[in-house]
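Methods — Computational structure assignment.
A single polypeptide chain was analysed. Its primary sequence is given first, followed by the predicted tertiary structure written as structure tokens.
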Amino acid sequence: MALQLESARFRGDPLLERIRAADTSAYLKDGQSGAPVKAVQYGLIDLDYAKQDEGLTPTDPVVGVGTITRLDGK
């Protein structure tokens, strides 16, 4: 049984729900953009894993080097 996402920020997003369910065909990749990327970036900022002054800019919701580096390092 798949666990639901706990955060309202992520819940209901089809891609993030598939990732949470361990669907290996669902992932965020370098250069990807859109709502799921923006949600993850804001989540990282909220948790102080990343800050806007470190090059993470959710107003430009693209998975780039800054986001991937932060995700890989945590």
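Note: The mean pLDDT is 74.
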